[in-house]
């Protein structure tokens, strides 16, 4: 994939976004959103609202799902369900048909599997809660990493031993920048910021 130059990026941003255009600052092109993020941080510090990154409570999902069983026991590859990780910015979540395809045959009468059938009857997807959530001013691309052979576990921990996914690795700027620096991957601000 061709990444745009700063000039074309600036044109793109100013012509296709509904948000205010990028502003030019010394040292590079920093988006309004990033500047806004900085402002929020400064304000937060000003009122003494220090964010505490302690142990987050486990994320509750609308139904039981075990990565340990499906990866460890059944032997499915991560990308069997997260099919777009190699091709796209997002990894994607499996559609209901993926679950239903097996569970019409496997444990079809299990209480734990019942929400799959119920969702199908109502023609509604299962509303999985988001586990990872980068701030909106950060740009991320799964395919760039997966195609370079970076393992899922580097950024997600040992999901194969988890039930529903939990946040094990903190996606701080330092985490990203350290690896980019070690692997001669791009380090300019616009690589990761809009
Ligand atoms: C270099 C780090 C990195 C690697 C490698 C990586 N991920 Fe991610 N993943 C992230 C980050 C960061 C997010 C959060 C993105 C956001 O909030 O915009 C994320 C989000 C996700 C999500 C939820 C959002 C989405 O993209 O659908 C899934 C599912 C996921 N990753 C699965 C995987 C799988 C499966 C692999 C391996 C094939 C993988 N990831 C490899 C960093 C990584
Ligand atoms: C490739 C086939 C396959 C796919 C796809 C699949 N499963 Fe499963 N699932 C299994 C197998 C095999 C078991 C283990 C059954 C056993 O222990 O006897 C299982 C177990 C389960 C269980 C526990 C059932 C019980 O009674 O203990 C739940 C819940 C479940 N799966 C939900 C899902 C959901 C949700 C999806 C979609 C995101 C999904 N499965 C996709 C094959 C599959
Ligand atoms: C049978 C399908 C299936 C397989 C195989 C599977 N996953 Fe998942 N994955 C799911 C489902 C369903 C969810 C949503 C529930 C949850 O968060 O656990 C999910 C959620 C995730 C999330 C959290 C997404 C978010 O909201 O940020 C990550 C990360 C993830 N999986 C990584 C992996 C990795 C790594 C593997 C391989 C070791 C893997 N998954 C294998 C079905 C699967
Ligand atoms: C394990 C090492 C590693 C980690 C951790 C990592 N990256 Fe990367 N990243 C790379 C490598 C290697 C490339 C590929 C560079 C290339 O193809 O030239 C890359 C490429 C990218 C690209 C595409 C850049 C381009 O110009 O093609 C983006 C965007 C990116 N990373 C953002 C992030 C963000 C955001 C994080 C943290 C959430 C992160 N990366 C964490 C190693 C890593
Ligand atoms: C390899 C990816 C990457 C690069 C390169 C990068 N950042 Fe970040 N940056 C991130 C991620 C990821 C976050 C979000 C961290 C979080 O949510 O805790 C972030 C957050 C920030 C924040 C919000 C405050 C904070 O620290 O959480 C600012 C400001 C920022 N970056 C500025 C910059 C500037 C200026 C540059 C260029 C010198 C830059 N970043 C380069 C990934 C990157």
Would you mind describing this structure in some detail?
Among the domains are: 64-93 and 134-194, no CATH class; 94-127, no CATH class. By secondary structure, the protein is mostly helical. Helix content is 40%, strand content 3%. Helix 5 (96-103) crosses helix 6 (114-121). A hairpin with a 2-residue loop joins strand 1 (23-25) and strand 2. Strands 1-2 form a two-stranded antiparallel sheet. One heme C binds next to helix 7, helix 8, helix 9 and helix 10.
Brief overview:
Helices cover 40% and strands 3% of the residues.
Q: What is the element layout, followed by pairings?
A:
Layout: H1 6-16, E1 23-25, E2 28-30, H2 32-46, H3 67-73, H4 78-81, H5 96-103, H6 114-121, H7 142-146, H8 152-156, H9 173-182, H10 189-192
Antiparallel strand pairs: 1-2
Helix pairs in contact: 5-6
This protein binds heme C (5 copies).
């Amino acid at each position: 994939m061709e990444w745009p130059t700063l000039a074309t990026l600036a044109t793109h941003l100013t012509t296709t976004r509904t948000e205010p255009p990028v502003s030019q600052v010394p040292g590079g092109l920093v988006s309004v959103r990033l500047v806004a993020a900085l402002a929020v941080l400064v304000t937060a510090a000003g009122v003494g609202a220090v964010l505490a990154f302690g142990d987050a409570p486990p994320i509750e999902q609308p139904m039981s799902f075990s990565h340990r069983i499906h990866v460890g026991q059944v032997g499915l590859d991560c990308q069997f369900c997260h099919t777009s990780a190699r091709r796209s910015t997002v990894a994607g979540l499996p559609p209901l048909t993926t679950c239903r395809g097996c569970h019409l045959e496997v444990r079809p009468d299990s209480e734990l599997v019942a929400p799959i059938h119920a969702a199908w009857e109502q023609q509604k997807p299962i509303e999985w809660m988001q586990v990872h959530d980068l701030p909106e001013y950060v740009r991320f691309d799964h395919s760039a990493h997966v195609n370079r052979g970076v393992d899922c576990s580097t950024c997600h921990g040992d999901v194969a031993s988890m039930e529903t996914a939990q946040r094990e690795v903190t996606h701080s700027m330092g985490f990203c920048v350290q690896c980019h620096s070690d692997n001669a991957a791009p380090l300019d601000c616009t690589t990761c910021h809009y």
